[in-house]
Amino acid sequence: MKQHVSLEAASSVHTMVEIKKFGLRDKLGYLFGDFGNDFFFILVSSFLMVYYTDIFGISAVTVGMLFLVARLWDALADVTWGRFLDSRKAGKHGKFKPWIFRMSFPLVISGVLMFVKIPGMSDGFYLAYAFVSYLIWGTLYSTVNISYGSMASVITSDPVERTTLSTFRTMGGSLASLIINVAGPLILFVDNKADASRFTLGAVIFGILSISCYMACYKLSTERIVTPEIKDRKSHLGQTLKGLLRNKPLLAILTASLIFMMCNMLLGAVNVYLFKDFFGHAAVLSLVGFIQIGTVFIAIPLAKPLVAKFGKKETASVGMLIAGLVYTLLYFLPHLSSISFIAISAIGMFGYAFFNLVVWAFVTDVIDYHEYVTGLREDGTVYSVYSFSRKVGQAIAGGIGGVALTAVGYDATHKVQTQSALDGIHTIATLVPGIVFLVVFIILVFFYPLTKQQSKQLTIDLTNKRQNPS
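-> structure tokens emitted (470 positions)
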């Protein structure tokens, strides 16, 4: 049954229009959005570096610089697209989801082309092709991902329902990660070596799955909160910037997410070399991917009751502390077998799974806080600023990953790496994430101000402010 409720927006920040009651349809739609996103995002983050180094023959340090430049460009594209979205008027199907439909097709096509190798070309051609195709894919990814991420705050205004959306989003990404990390190594590698034709085949398969998920997201999701078009964006730019700087929860979660994403990207890229070279068994990456997703699904039923009892900040903080301690411990156990290493690291994966499960609920709280301090509802802008920090983290991770691998002596032309290079890869995959996870724990505990009680109070205060605008 459809319900129609309209609130005058003459003196209010936004207009709310109830189209359908929030329910399972919305949750599944939002799940499919990140399902579609992560088919290529995880494929790129986990395997693009080894594709460039082992198939295109590009040095690891050059790949790192390519990732750094492209990701910084993507970060700017995020903010530009977010501001563009906030200047648009909501149409028949909403403000954000039509752009998911429009841009997902060119995004998937560019993703497939990124993994196509034209035989017999020069090294310079492969470098140029890698840079251009990656840059185009990243820019198109911004148009879809910012639209998708901004949509969460207009699907529902209820904090509990938003937390559910965050959980379903993580489930969608986790399902894609399960498929990529379990099936990926089996498809992409032949006799423990990256294979060009297999990478192209994998990209086509994942591309078809990706576009199918985007269409499901578009069909099942419903935007309920309609924000009026702000025509004079320039006059509000100063107010927006001041609000962002005054938004302490935003600044804290930006910092935490930046370094967390940096660590995850670095870990995903280096794990390929860790198991391919240090442990000498690339196929075991499938087991790593399976266990990583398994820890997320174990954490899912625990997340909601823990957040309800202790709060998002508190639950995520403890998880990061566990992860930091486990990965630091692994550094001091260099002689473990690959199976023992995976078993212990699973505890750390379980710890940081809680951060991943609630992080998008953090973002919707931050968007609400921005409205509270500025009087402006700017979902696209605030989400794009958050995404900007994640892209910067990805850029840094890509740059550091290539530089670090080169620094420890990794050479793709060697069939067997030196012992010092192997030891260096082990350090990058254990001690570095251990330290980073502990830093995220400190940021959440001491710098993120929205405890469980303060989050509840923010919802009450914002509701009162909307009903009684000054």
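Confidence is low (pLDDT under 50) at residues 1-18.
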